[in-house]
Input
Amino acid sequence: MTAFRILFCAFGVVSALSATPVAAHPHIFVDAGLRLLRDADGVVSAVEVTWRYDELYTLLLTEDYGLDPDYDLVLTEAEVAQMLGFDLNWSGGFEGGLVLRQGGAPLDLGAPEPVSLTLLPSGQLETTHRRAVRGAVAGDLLAQVYDPEFYIAFEMILPIDIEGAPACGVELLRADLDAAYSVLEQALEEIGGAVAAEDNFPPVGAHFADRVEVTCPG
Output
């Protein structure tokens, strides 16, 4: 269990003791990683996004879809074909969680295309999808993966790779969880502490988001 999960569980206990039902969020924990694909001019043209689901949610998925009935943690080709892209049918305003910025402005991202799906020896389901990137130029960029509504808690702790760009530097800046929880507590106070499931949970996901700074020669 990562430090984020431990801290959130502790916060949930405190909230439960104070009769604030915030422990309902987040529902799903996902480790995220990126692979930036660059063209001949060094411009990011696409990005591959990897999501590694927590063990509990993976168990729920495998049970719901009837996967891995022999519990050997190996999916058949038919099972992979059945599941590939299952997590790309986004709705309710969720746009995939990925944000890429250059010069402070968000880059335009294309629709997701499934790449792979694997059940890891750890008992976690891992998926990868690819998105086109439009409007980028050669140089630095900032990447984040988060759910604004905080239904999903993303941590960018998987590898960040840059294809064909060994000179680029990558720095992971972890979210300031103390500051994020302060924002959450203040938001809950502003709505009187009454959270009705998903209907009015404050959109605090960005405050819990890690940042990856990619520094490349222009």
In short: The longest helix spans residues 3-17.
